């Protein structure tokens, strides 16, 4: 393989992610304004958690598309960064650790929103959970900050590791063989096991809180301890939150599935590698756009203030809302 395709080059990777962050930044800033100043009183209890999720989503976008810009030689756990931190000579292992932490903190922020909903609805008065929730949340954030440490600590000897990479990828272009390639790991356990542990923990916690929320709402609906209007509003918010988080995660499954297949069959395709990380870098953009649309107060503000001069936009938007149902 050689650089016969521009899409396989480091220049394309850097250009694409720079372009992406230039598009994302104004949208992220606008969404931040909406959360801070356009969140209605009815959503006040979740305002901080919404901002927390949005903050770490921005952090991951900046981490991938500006600070590090990873050029990954998958299926080998090797590559080199092209981002701003590279110009400040920040060690590559530290840049990889930063991305791992940002991914963990983004996942914990999703759990935090679900926990907040459960606590406000069912755990405020006389419930045992209110005595443990702070410890639970702090522990989650601590785990997110340290789970990737094995990958940081067990970085292999680079000379020997590079030789293994060249043996694994004999078709590696000459242009890359002479680059400053950094090998994060030769033993996948130091990467896979921490990531698997963190992913399982976050999915388990999210599933438990979602189940408990719906279970308790159903029980209190039967007991008439919550009004039908309150239950309807809470279900609407949970549906909106599920869509806001699940659709971007579903988009991430495409590059993640390819990376798994690439590793199993030892497929090296640099064009696919580049587009995988570009897709991952676009996660925050999808999440922000969905948030602005799926939550009614933000959607109304966008339509009223930003799109009022576009002929027929309000009419077309209302038809879309009617088609898919207002959340």
From TrEMBL:
Transmembrane segments: 12-37, 58-77, 97-114, 134-155, 190-214, 241-266, 272-296
Name the UniProt record assigns to this protein: Serpentine Receptor, class H
InterPro entries in UniProt: 7TM_GPCR_serpentine_rcpt_Srh (IPR019422), Nematode_rcpt-like_serp_H (IPR053220)
Protein source organism: Caenorhabditis elegans
Coiled-coil segments on the chain, per record: none
Keywords for the protein's UniProt record, in alphabetical order: Membrane, Receptor, Transmembrane, Transmembrane helix
The UniProt record lists the keyword Transmembrane: yes
Database matches in Pfam families: 7TM_GPCR_Srh (PF10318)
């Amino acid at each position: 393989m050689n650089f016969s395709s521009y899409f396989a080059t480091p220049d394309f990777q850097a250009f694409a992610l720079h372009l992406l962050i230039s598009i994302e930044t104004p949208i992220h800033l606008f969404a931040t304004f909406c959360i801070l100043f356009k969140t209605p009183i009815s959503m006040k209890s979740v305002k901080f958690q919404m901002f927390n999720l949005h903050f770490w989503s921005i952090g991951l976008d900046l981490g991938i598309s500006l600070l590090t810009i990873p050029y990954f030689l998958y299926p080998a756990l090797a590559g080199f960064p092209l981002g701003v931190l590279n110009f400040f000579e920040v060690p590559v292992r530290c840049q990889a650790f930063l991305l791992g932490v940002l991914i963990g903190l983004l996942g914990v922020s999703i759990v935090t929103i679900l926990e907040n909903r459960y606590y406000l609805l069912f755990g405020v008065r006389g419930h045992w959970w209110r005595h443990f929730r702070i410890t639970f949340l702090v522990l989650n954030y601590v785990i997110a900050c340290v789970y990737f440490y094995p990958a940081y600590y067990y970085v292999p000897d680079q000379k020997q590791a590079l030789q293994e990479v060249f043996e694994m990828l004999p078709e590696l272009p000459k242009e890359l063989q002479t680059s400053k390639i950094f090998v994060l790991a030769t033993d996948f356990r130091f990467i896979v096991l921490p990531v698997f542990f963190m992913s399982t923990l976050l999915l388990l916690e999210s599933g438990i809180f979602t189940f408990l929320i719906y279970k308790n709402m159903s029980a209190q609906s039967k007991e008439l301890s919550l009004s039908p209007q309150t239950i309807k509003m809470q279900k609407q918010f949970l549906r909106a939150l599920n869509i806001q988080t699940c659709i971007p995660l579903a988009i991430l499954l495409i590059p993640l599935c390819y990376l798994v297949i690439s590793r199993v069959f030892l497929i090296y395709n640099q064009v696919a590698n580049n587009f995988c990380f570009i897709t991952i870098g676009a996660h925050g953009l999808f999440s922000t756009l969905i948030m602005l649309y799926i939550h009614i107060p933000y959607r109304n503000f966008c339509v009223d203030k930003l799109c009022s001069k576009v002929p027929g936009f309000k009419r077309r938007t209302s038809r879309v809302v009617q088609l898919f149902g207002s959340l």
